[in-house]
Structure to design on (347 residues):
């Protein structure tokens, strides 16, 4: 296949721009990384092991959960189950970028996905809802978040927690507030609001009754079903045209 | 099946975690490459995308303390009023800190 058949070209200057755009939030990621580094060494991981984990896994919540399971030996299947369950949201996040990613050459496409994480995905998904195609933030934003996660882990394993009590400053809520702001900055049609209501109820139900760490996927799929059965008007018209 | 946390064991465990996480990063996009994107599928993934955020945040509010609830509600109100993320996030974090300081 020729290069020309992939319409999306990554713009280097935009990658740099997105790197600096996510720099402020990545400062908070340093704080989380330090918390992880401290927790990992307290669970008996060596500094280099903790840093290798942050470098290659780059998924904070699952790393915290994994180190909770650490001991003189670790059960493999429960570890796989927990890491997969917590990170399964990536499956949906990646899928949601597919309309853009299909226009990127496969090697670059999967290269970008190495850096896929909540914050850079949230920016890209929100811009896509508002009609802009931005994969540069996955690369540039992902790089700064990844570096911040490494620097944070490094500080944590060698110097302990940076702050005595990051929770008292509200720092544990940075990512939650960021993701919420991204959601509310997107398009809000009645259809989207109904989907959000369904997603909220489904995620709460899953959080209460389903196995741990399944609530994000359950809520997101439930919300997605609303979109599947309830199309926006122009899309509904296109669908009928296609069937005719 | 268990792996001992010797040096080689830890490396194996980290490799397993990295591989599982990589599967989640690649899997959704790989699966989508077999799906024909109809308007209905497009509508599904667009609605799903913003629902991911809601499904992360809402249980966070319900399982969190008063500070967490304050952070998320202040972020929501500020974001809807000003439509600018940075002030909204800043106000939310300040609210969490304040509520935890006071109570």
């Amino acid at each position: 296949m020729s290069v020309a058949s992939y319409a999306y070209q990554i713009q280097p200057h935009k990658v740099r721009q997105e790197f600096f755009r996510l720099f402020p939030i990545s400062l908070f990621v340093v704080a989380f990384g330090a918390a992880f580094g401290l927790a990992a060494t307290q669970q008996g991981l060596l500094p280099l092991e903790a840093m290798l984990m942050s470098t290659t896994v780059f998924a904070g919540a699952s790393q915290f959960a994994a180190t909770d399971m650490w001991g003189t030996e670790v059960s493999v299947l429960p570890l796989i189950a927990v890491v997969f369950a917590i990170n399964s949201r990536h499956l949906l996040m990646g899928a949601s970028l597919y309309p853009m990613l299909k226009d990127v050459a496969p090697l670059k496409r999967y290269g970008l996905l190495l850096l896929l994480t909540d914050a850079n995905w949230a920016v890209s998904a929100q811009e896509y809802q508002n009609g802009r195609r931005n994969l540069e933030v996955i690369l540039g934003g992902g790089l700064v978040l990844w570096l911040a996660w490494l620097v944070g882990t490094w500080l944590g394993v060698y110097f302990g927690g940076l702050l005595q009590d990051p929770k008292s400053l509200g720092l544990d809520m940075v990512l939650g507030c960021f993701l919420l702001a991204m959601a509310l900055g997107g398009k809000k049609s009645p259809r989207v609001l109904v989907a959000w209501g369904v997603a909220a109820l489904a995620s709460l139900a899953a959080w209460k009754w389903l196995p741990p760490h399944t609530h994000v996927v359950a809520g997101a799929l439930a919300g997605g079903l609303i979109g599947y059965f309830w199309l926006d008007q122009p899309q509904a018209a296109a669908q009928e045209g296609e069937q005719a | 099946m268990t792996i001992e946390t010797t040096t080689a064991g830890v490396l194996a465990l980290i490799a397993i975690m990295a591989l599982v996480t990589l599967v989640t990063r690649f899997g959704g996009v790989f699966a989508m490459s077999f799906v024909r994107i109809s308007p209905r599928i497009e509508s599904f993934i667009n609605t799903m995308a913003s629902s991911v955020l809601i499904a992360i945040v809402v249980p966070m509010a319900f399982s969190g303390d008063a500070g967490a609830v304050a952070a998320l509600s202040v972020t929501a109100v500020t974001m809807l009023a000003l439509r600018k993320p940075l002030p909204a996030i800043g106000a939310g974090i300040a609210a969490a800190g304040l509520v935890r300081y006071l109570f």
Observations:
- The first helix of chain A runs from residue 12 to 21.
- The CA atoms of residues 2 and 105 of chain A lie 10 Å apart.
